[in-house]
Design a protein that fits this description.
CATH superfamily of the largest domain: P-loop containing nucleotide triphosphate hydrolases
CATH class of the largest domain: Alpha Beta
Number of domains: 6
Number of strands: 33
Number of helices: 26
Strand content: 15-25%
Catalytic activity: Couples ATP hydrolysis with the unwinding of duplex DNA by translocating in the 3'-5' direction; ATP + H2O = ADP + phosphate + H(+)
CATH topology of the largest domain: Rossmann fold
Protein name: Replication restart protein PriA
Largest sheet: 7 strands, parallel
Cofactor: Zn(2+)
Structural class: alpha/beta
CATH architecture of the largest domain: 3-Layer(aba) Sandwich
Helix content: 25-40%
Bound molecules: adenosine-5'-diphosphate, zinc ion
Distance between the termini: 53 Å
Pfam family, one: ResIII
Radius of gyration: 30 Å
Strand order of the largest sheet: 14-15-13-16-17-12-18
Family: Belongs to the helicase family. PriA subfamily.
């Protein structure tokens, strides 16, 4: 007898352990750790992951596994172990962790189908089962009492394969493939025998003589500029043959990837890559921080590191932020590694995502380029993990399990004994601090490939504009600069920060912003209560009537959307042709690319947008970058507001003058003397780092202290207040005396969907028992959570403080 230990799909914190199930004899040979099964659980049948197989169980009356859902494991041993660790780290359920590692489609309904790949080697009973067909459903196999051991053997030998058929229209796509029906030398003979005037047929044959492999008919027609009719003639002559085959939906099918080869590395690239190569060659785990200015050639370092990994027969994961996963970025990896690359991003349909994932699972690719969740790619011979733009907050998942891809990368790097490379022009403060301490190995690239200076930055003081009588949101200098570019047929990128959910209050005369005296973050204006509140601690004051610095009454709250900017800009410069890119204009699939193409083809002269235009884009004729309201980033109620501003300003500035034409950057702000603005305009990361570290030290923020954010929500505001208060009290009692508890306080967004939200925050240096205490608190509220709609969210090292 064998017993399977199963993690069951029940979302309750009280069942975060495994259950034992007897493995029916018919599945003995087949069932492996990492497969999913259906099992009886109480009155229901549910799904579960098999995480261990053992000979016996202590449980008296064991229930049996009902059915298997997978024929091959969907999770490797490594991922099973990683999932457990991740669940513990984030205080989530094992089941949540495992689900998060798999493509969503695997959660949905789908069918399994067995496809026959050969007739010859199959056993008699399997042959009989297929009865001349190429496909049978897995259900049919089970109903006819098929032999699982034989099936497994055939699968291992590659005589059959299992396809997952997602129940949606667009899943299975088939295409016509053309291949040679005779050996190459016979084709050569046939070529000579073709009539002299059969030029078209000659061309197709010639193609196969020089490329003796199967090709999709559509591609063949394109390549040889031929017709289906010509191909058909050759098939009738018995020289070629056609087959209908399942193809992967390729989201980049219509993109032509020009193939590239390794560039001669520059001196600074060589210096940066050698330690990485060494770690790959010698098979040891090391985390590198590649700090390279924009345009310094980081991508080439990634590419040539991966090249080495592939040569050693190993695999690579490359993470890029979702919004940077543009065709431009994908092109660079596909161009170098061609079909060895799978791409995973949220723009794909669930079916497409699943296809890409399947390629990884079947080891048909060597490289995956993707957003956050690609970190779970089921590779088994990882040789390198690269995280580009490592400072990006999108690497943190904002729902359970709240993991950070960087931490997962480090875990997997350790497991596979391979390097982890974190790359950025503006590393996260925490990362740079670790590099300085020697926890990471720092690799620096300080000059741009084209040897050009970064474009000069001009800071415009919007207070002076006001004094000069200009009440628009565009300074005179910016308007003039835009007009010049339009005249010269050059292009402009205008950047506006994504509108914050909250509004801060600022004096337009002197630029003073009202801040919390103990937290150093901007106070948020609450219209309903006419109060200014701090969202970390509980500090609040009535809305001010005049500036406490200069007594001016020009007090304004901020928060302008891109649409409004577009309208105002057209009033000032009616001849402008604007492409606006924000969440509203890019919602539909493919809209992103379409808008960029319009700009690329110069059918517009201004690209106006939010964060999504800040990175990765590369246009030759962009010679001016304008940043409209630096202040709306600088004053978000977030202790990272200044750091995020510095990063964004550096990123957007990098969009100008990337090619031959020199670029220029104009930043508009009311806070001209702020260190983040000043140092970003000088591209001085090092100095910025030192200054910001000082700030963090004095206000007790990371990297000097760790944070844990606990967010409570419920329809009843009193209930939320009471629970949050209780949690704060429990934490205070059980954590060490070194920890500080901030709050309880209303969250920056106090109400979402009629649920009230309160929070408290733990600031600490070292609290080894923290997770255990929090788990106990969650246990304590278990019934309220299960039955009474109470929500308690715990975020370790949070990035979103809203
Ligand atoms: P980063 O990723 O650091 O911003 P990129 O990788 O985009 O920089 O490189 C900037 C430009 O320099 C690109 O156009 C790239 O093709 C080019 N480049 C990079 N490395 C080399 C090299 N070794 N030789 C020639 N050109 C290079
Ligand atoms: Zn003032
Ligand atoms: Zn405060």
């Amino acid at each position: 007898m064998s017993v399977a230990k199963v993690v069951v799909d029940v979302p309750s914190s009280q069942i975060n352990h495994t259950f034992d199930y007897k493995i029916p004899e018919k599945y003995e040979a087949l069932l492996k750790v990492g497969m999913r099964v259906t099992i009886p659980f109480g009155p229901r049948k549910i799904m579960g992951f098999v995480i261990e197989i053992v000979p016996t169980s202590d449980v008296k009356r064991l229930k049996e596994i009902e059915a298997i859902m997978d024929i091959t494991p969907v999770l490797t041993k490594e991922l099973l172990q990683l999932g457990k660790w991740m669940a513990d780290q984030t205080v989530s359920l094992y089941i949540q962790a495992y689900q998060a590692m798999l493509p969503r489609v695997l959660k949905a309904k789908y069918k399994k189908e067995i496809e026959k790949l050969t007739d010859i080697e199959l056993t008699a009973s399997l042959k009989q089962m297929f009865a001349g067909r190429d496909f049978i459903t897995f259900e049919e196999f089970e109903e006819n009492k098929g032999n699982y051991a034989e099936l497994l053997h055939a699968l291992k030998e590659g005589y059959i394969q299992i396809n997952y058929i997602v129940e949606s229209k667009e899943t299975s796509k088939k295409a016509l493939f053309i291949d040679m029906a005779k050996e190459q030398h016979l084709l050569e003979e046939a070529f000579i025998d073709l009539p002299k005037n059969a030029k078209k047929q000659q061309e197709v044959l010639q193609y196969f003589i020089s490329n003796p492999t199967e090709i999709e008919q559509k591609k063949l027609i394109e390549k040889c500029k031929t017709t289906p009719h010509t191909i058909q003639l050759l098939i009738e002559k018995g020289l070629l043959k056609k087959t209908l085959k399942k193809v992967y939906r390729d989201p980049f099918a219509n993109t032509n990837f020009q193939s590239t080869t390794a560039l001669q590395l520059s001196e600074q690239q060589r210096k940066a890559i050698e330690p990485i190569w060494k770690s790959i060659d010698n098979n040891y785990n090391e985390t590198f921080l590649l700090h390279g200015v924009t345009g310094s050639g980081k991508t080439e370092v990634y590419l040539q590191s991966i090249e080495k990994v592939i040569k050693l027969g190993k695999e690579a994961i490359v993470l890029v932020p979702e919004i940077a996963l543009t065709p431009q970025m994908v092109k660079r990896f596909k161009g170098r590694f061609g079909d060895d690359v799978a791409v995973l991003h949220s723009g794909l349909s669930p079916g497409e995502r699943f296809d890409e994932w399947t390629k990884i699972q079947k080891k048909e690719v060597k490289v995956v380029v993707g957003a956050r969740s690609a970190i779970f790619a089921p590779f088994e011979k990882l040789g390198i993990i690269i995280i580009d733009e490592e400072h990006e907050t999108s690497y943190k998942q904002e729902e359970q399990p709240r993991y950070h891809a960087r931490e997962i990368a480090k875990y997997r790097g350790e497991y596979h004994q391979c390097p982890v490379v974190l790359g950025s022009a503006t590393p996260l403060l925490e990362s740079f601090a670790r590099a300085k301490k020697g926890v990471y190995t720092l690799l620096e690239m300080t000059s741009r490939m084209n040897e050009q200076q970064m474009p000069p930055v001009k800071i415009i003081d919007m207070r002076e504009e006001l004094h000069a009588g200009n009440r628009t949101m565009f300074s005179r200098e910016l308007v003039q600069a835009i007009k010049n570019r339009i005249e010269r047929n050059e292009q402009v990128v205008l950047f506006l920060n994504r509108r914050g959910h909250s509004t801060f209050v600022m004096c337009r005369e002197c630029g003073d912003v009202v801040k919390c005296p103990s937290c150093d973050i901007a106070l948020t204006y609450h219209k309903s209560s006419y109060q200014l509140k701090c969202h970390y601690c509980d500090y609040q004051i009535p809305m001010i009537q005049e500036c406490k610095e200069c007594q001016s009454k020009q007090i304004q709250y901020f928060g302008t959307g891109t649409q409004k900017v577009e309208e105002s800009l057209l009033e000032v410069i009616p001849e402008a042709k604007i492409v606006r890119m924000d969440v509203d204009t890019t919602r539909r699939k493919g809209a992103h690319e379409k808008l960029l193409t319009i700009f690329q083809e110069k059918r517009a002269n201004i690209l106006l947008g939010t964060q999504m235009i800040a990175k990765g884009l590369d246009f030759e004729d962009v010679t001016l970058v304008g940043v409209l309201a630096v202040d709306s980033m600088l004053n978000l109620p977030d202790f990272r507001a200044s750091e995020k501003t510095f990063q964004l300003l550096t990123q957007v500035s990098g969009r100008a003058g990337r090619h031959k034409l020199p670029g220029e950057v104009i930043m508009q702000t009311y806070s001209t003397e702020h260190y983040a603005v000043q140092l970003a305009s000088q591209y001085n990361y090092e100095q910025y780092f030192l200054h910001e570290m000082q700030m963090r030290k004095s206000f007790h923020y990371p990297p000097y202290y760790y944070l844990t954010l606990i967010n409570v929500s419920h329809q009843d505001e009193l209930k939320v207040q009471e629970v949050t208060k209780m949690i704060s009290r429990l934490l205070l009692k059980h954590l060490s005396g070194d920890a500080t508890i901030l709050g309880p306080t209303p969250s920056p967004i106090v109400r979402i969907n009629n649920r009230y939200r309160y929070q408290c925050m733990i600031k600490y240096k070292d609290e080894p028992n923290q997770r255990e205490i929090i788990r106990k608190i969650l246990q304590y509220y278990h019934d309220d959570i299960q039955k009474n709609n109470l929500m308690i969210q715990v975020d370790f090292e949070p990035y979103q403080l809203m």
